Amino acid sequence: FCLSGIGKIYLIGTGKAVVPMARAVMDQLGDRLCGGVLIGKHDEPQFKLDAGPKIDYRLGSHPVPSALSLESTRRLVEFLGKPTDKDLVICLISGGGSSLMSLPYDPISLEDFQETTRQLLFCGATINEVNTIRKHLDQVKGGGLARLAAPAALATLVLSDVIGDALDAIASGPTVADPSTFRDAWQIITRY
Questions:
Q1: I want to staple 152 with a disulfide (CB 3.0 to 4.6 A). Which of 50, 87, 134, 190 is the partner?
Q2: Torsion-angle region of residue 52: left (phi > 0), alpha (psi -120 to 50) or beta?
Q3: Is 22 left (phi over 0), alpha (psi -120 to 50) or beta?
Q4: In which order are the strands placed within the sheet that holds 55-59?
Q5: Nearest 5°: phi and psi at 108?
Q6: How far, rounded to the nearest angstrom, does the alpha carbon of residue 125 sit from its chain's CA centroid?
Q7: Is the pLDDT assigned to residue 133 strictly greater than 90?
Q8: What DSSP designation does 113 have?
Q9: How far apart are CA 30 and CA 11, in angstroms?
Q10: What is the tens place of the pLDDT at every residue in 68-113?
Q11: Which helix (H) or strand (E) holds 135?
Q12: Strands, E, within the chain: which ranges?
């Protein structure tokens, strides 16, 4: 991206490595960042202090999402209402983001979403199979976050924890197209 043509630059992201990733972006862009919302796993008081009021660092739960995950994700989604078509949203994605950043579709309850996640994690399903189900139950997965960031330009920086580095599998692919279908999801459910 040629930054001279960009209006405001925003930072969003999730995952177990979101804090060091955010530090690297902040080191490079400094005052160009206008704000952001990040969702991590661990409380990072020093990062909150270093990031200042522009970056809202929130917590989620891993490996099963919690009310905290949903509350933090709602805040991130609300924040995405600010960028315009002249702006750039930088999204940081790393492992663990599937549970840290979660927002199931209505009328799916948190309890049902948690139980589905638990059943999938402990039934022998692969991470790709688990994420296929998650992408069809959650508003921000399977490209959902990219849709919410529009009309701003979006740049995603990914740190993979998935063998083969399939972008749609890392944190359930919040900023990439989902190649799976509801039929694929149903086949996984019936298999297990």
A1: 87
A2: left
A3: alpha
A4: 55-59, 33-40, 9-14, 88-94, 153-159
A5: -70, 125
A6: 21
A7: yes
A8: H
A9: 11
A10: 999 999 999 999 998 999 999 999 999 999 999 999 999 999 999 9
A11: helix 127-137
A12: 9-14, 33-40, 55-59, 88-94, 153-159
User: Is a pLDDT exceeding 90 seen at residue 164?
Assistant: no
Q: At which residue do the structure tokens 């399903």 appear?
A: 125
For residue 161, give the nearest of 103, 94, 104 by alpha carbon: 94
Q: What residue type is assigned to position 78 of the chain?
A: E
Cβ-contact 160, 21 below 8 angstroms: no
Instruction: For residue 46, give Cα distances in angstroms to 28, 39, 43, 70, 108.
Output: 19, 15, 9, 24, 36
Q: Which amino acid is at 161?
A: D
- Structure tokens belonging to residue 100: 């840290």
Q: Please name the residues in contact with 20: beta carbons below 8 A apart, sequence gap of 6 or more.
A: none
Interval 42-80: pLDDT, tens:
999 999 999 999 999 999 999 999 999 999 999 999 999
Going by their DSSP bridges, the two strands 55-59 and 153-159 should be labelled as unpaired
Residue 186 phi/psi, 5-degree rounding, is -65, -40
How long, in residues, is the chain?
Answer: 192
Q: How far apart are CA 108 and CA 160, in angstroms?
A: 29
